[in-house]
Amino acid sequence: MTPAEILDGLFPAGHAVTRDGDLLSGRGTLRGGGGVHVVGAVGHAPIGIDEAIRLSAAILGIVQGGDDAPILFLADTASQRMSRRDELLGLNEYLAHLAKSLQLAQAHGHRTVGLLYGGSAAGAFIATGLACGTLVALPGARPEVMDLPSMARVTKLPIEVLEAKAKATPVFAPGVDNLVRIGGIAAVWDPAEDLAGRLEALLAGPEAGDERAAAGAARGGRPKAAVIADEIVAAARA
Amino acid sequence: MSDQRRSWYEAGARERVAALVDAASFTEYVGPERREISPHLRLFDLPAQFDDGIVVGAATLGGKPILVAAQEGRFMGGAFGEVHGAKLTGLLRAAKATARDVVIAFDTGGVRLQEANAGEVAIAEIMRALIEARLAQVRVVGLIGGRAGCFGGGGLIAGCCSTLIVSEQGRISVTGPEVIETNKGVEEFDSRDRAFVWRTMGGKHRMLIGGADVFVDDDAAAFRDAALAALDRPVRLDLDTLAAEQARLERRIARFGGAADATQIWSALGIDRPQAVPDLPAADFAALAATRRESADDAR
């Protein structure tokens, strides 16, 4: 689906979202009348320092605007931009700043909902969709951690081995179903059903804490994370 | 330097914790006796380690109760898997719950690729817990000077800390040199050119552009002293902080965005002999940085 088709499905009452390069910004209107800020990183572009700083500017601008409308973050990105220049200038700070900005927005009362409809990988995924309070996906989304040739280089495992594992191992293999099983994606929304209704139901529900580890345990993809984190909190409070 | 100098770069995680905190004050949480190993490494026929490559617990530092974590760079490059990540997430949630500051000794290549999805989500959970702790007025101090550096998602976590202390050996980056080279070619990034790697990602460059706050020698006592001082710095993470960071990072692109090499940035900072920076002893470098660097001014 294109961003325009997705926005039409989410906001049948209307939306005004403009595209500037591979970044989106604007507003949608819920059927009940409420507004939603829309920010996006689209076009399957990598997120480098120049993209990240514009996204954080948009998020902080929303926080400074003073309302408490939710923020919908549409995502179809590659990985972070891999270049000498981006690392030279401290890409880690720009991506961390973007994640901090999203979480600050949430602390200021804006629900943050990431909607992954295309690809996303590695640092770009962590600083956008995975930094939102809730992350959902459309069928066909393609999250991954790293491309297999790079994984082969780093792990020193033959690419044939990695290709075989990618078919059979949820904790390793890319794809939206595996991220759901791990707990990283809360739900997959079927666009054949009512996208606007899904968004409205999500926003009507209570704002929860970080439930990803518990979801990963319940879905059988991450058996230990929630138990261990809880145990450490209990030990520290004892 | 005293006769007692111990290299931070050479030390393991448990040695770093021992050197950092007050003697006999450390209590480990979910320690090696628990044998909480990764449930995923056996899929790749890889050996597990009983602490999954990270030590977490409570201690005092200069008499002040803190929480502390240290990654073991010698086990799978200190990479974040499910258990490793959950231990740090739990520690950061505990910091918020108990209002105790946290010191993290990073030593990591980033996500542990054999359990890639679990590691990646773990990074996101750690960042969320870290930022929540900071929003609740907890300080999170990061120390970077180990063999594995601080790469990938580790670099993003480091970028969320309230104060970063680095030595020259402390490389901070998102994409590691070998991955850039694999994707973009050796002309873009020659991972075997060690001098180029260190001046692009190393502690001196990060200090000069404001990506780190304190520069120390490769000495465990120096890291301890700097961590102690960092725990006295103001606590703040709010809209003003992030607006200031936004301005700081925009200014960095405007000033240095056209540079092709770190030496051009150092020259633009007013350093007369930028090519000499990599060879400067730590004390001389710290003196130079004090007058020439872009300070982060607590805008992080």
From TrEMBL, chain A:
GO molecular function, one term: lyase activity
Keywords: Lyase
Name of the top EC class for this enzyme: lyase
Assigned EC number: 4.1.1.87
InterPro entries, sorted: ClpP/crotonase-like_dom_sf
Gene3D superfamilies to which the protein is assigned, alphabetical: 2-enoyl-CoA Hydratase, Chain A, domain 1
Protein name stated in the entry: Malonate decarboxylase gamma subunit
From TrEMBL, chain B:
MF annotations from Gene Ontology: lyase activity
Keywords: Lyase, Transferase
InterPro entries assigned to the protein according to its UniProt record, in alphabetical order: AcCoA_carboxyl_beta, ClpP/crotonase-like_dom_sf, COA_CT_N, Malonate_beta
Domain of life: Bacteria
SUPFAM superfamilies recorded: ClpP/crotonase
EC number: 4.1.1.87
Signal peptide (from-to): none
Keyword hit for tRNA processing: no
Record-annotated CoA carboxyltransferase N-terminal domain positions: 1-239
Matching NCBIfam families: malonate_beta, PRK07189.1
Protein name: Malonate decarboxylase beta subunit
Organism annotation: Labrys monachus
